[in-house]
UniProtKB/TrEMBL annotation:
Name of this protein: F-box domain containing protein
Source organism, top-level taxon: Eukaryota
Organism: Colletotrichum chrysophilum
Limits of the F-box domain: 26-74
Gene3D superfamilies in the record: 1.20.1280.50
Length: 333
């Protein structure tokens, strides 16, 4: 099991803290001649050489590389793959796709604590509104760590439990919006990370959801592709636009207004831009309520190319495999 220290992860390879050879001097492998060990090291891939150089002072010398120069020469994707393979069996670290380095696991960093994020993570526009509508934010590091700790099964299980704990939030007394209830439930199924979210909005008037529309059109709700167009601020405007084809609609416009016009009928769709990894449904059970549900497939873990770089919407993210079942069906099994 690889365990990389604090100094190493953020900046590359600082090999000054390798263990003393005295602690491993009796290992049979280290009794071999240096020439033979060098021949063996020559057959190893670069990731294995990097891990080997962290084991003791002798292997540090034998497997010496200019790691900083090596990392500078790697392209973005190759650098993530390199760090991902090192982090694959490292229970204390995860790969960051923002700064292309490794971060030490912070047990306070869970999806429901949106304020505990590394400084390299970009904050969205309308951050306060985004958090109020979507207080459970899964980042690639959460998925990567949850899958890894689930696979290892013998370390940081308390943190894994926190990562996988369902989250609910009822409307707060000081909320100005119309979100009455929010829930998020993660699951690990067949080695893949799935997530379900649910929003319940209450309209201020009978069949008039303009107030709800106005609240969620400024911040992506289901995913970043599902943005409501600014020009359709009312059902009447949307109907006119449909009739006279005035403006192109965003994918979420029809999804929003269809259930408003068809009380009791659930509208089901998936985001075409998320590579079939996002499904959602909208239902208005009565004239005052709108229920939005979304199901996400964050993929599986692998140590091949794209290793441990489990991040939503990543093209290299390992797929679950061909299945006729929807994400919703797999989640509800």
């Amino acid at each position: 099991m690889v365990n990389i220290d604090n100094a190493t992860a953020p900046s590359g390879f600082d090999l000054s803290n390798t263990r003393s050879i005295k602690t491993v001097a009796r290992a049979h492998l280290l009794r071999l001649p240096s020439e033979l060990l060098l021949d063996i090291i020559g057959y190893l891939d670069i990731v294995t050489v990097a891990i080997l150089s962290r084991t003791c002072a002798r292997f540090r010398a034998l497997a010496h590389r200019d790691w900083k120069q090596f990392l500078r020469q790697l392209l973005f994707v190759k650098k993530l793959v390199f760090w991902g393979k090192i982090a694959f069996d490292s229970p204390n670290h995860s790969v960051c796709q923002n700064c292309h380095r490794m971060h030490r696991i912070n047990h306070a960093d869970v999806p429901q604590t949106c304020n505990v994020v590394p400084p390299c993570v970009l904050t969205p526009q309308n951050r306060s509104l985004a958090i109020s509508l979507n207080p459970y934010k899964v980042r690639p590091q959460h998925v990567q760590t949850a899958l890894k700790l689930s696979r290892l099964g013998n370390i940081h299980q308390g943190y894994l439990e926190k990562l996988m704990t369902p989250f609910t939030r009822n409307r707060q007394p000081d909320d100005r919006g119309h979100l009455q209830y929010f829930a998020a439930m993660p699951k690990i199924i067949s080695g893949g990370y799935l997530l379900r979210k649910e929003w319940i909005f209450k309209s201020g008037g009978e069949c008039h959801f303009e107030d709800v529309h106005g609240q969620i059109r400024r911040a992506p709700l289901v995913c970043y592709h599902m943005i409501i167009a600014f020009m359709y601020s009312s059902l009447r405007e949307w109907n006119l636009a449909q009739k006279y084809r005035l403006y192109p609609q965003t994918p979420f416009d029809e999804s929003f207004w269809y259930p408003v016009c068809n009380i009791g009928k659930e509208f089901k769709e998936k985001c075409a831009n998320c590579s079939d990894r996002t499904e959602y449904s909208i239902l208005c059970p009565d004239k005052y309520t709108m229920i939005i549900r979304a199901w996400y497939d964050y993929g599986t873990e692998t140590h091949d190319d794209g290793a441990s770089i489990t991040g939503f919407l990543e093209k290299k993210m390992p797929r679950r495999g061909s299945s006729s079942q929807s994400i919703r069906e797999i989640f509800d099994e």
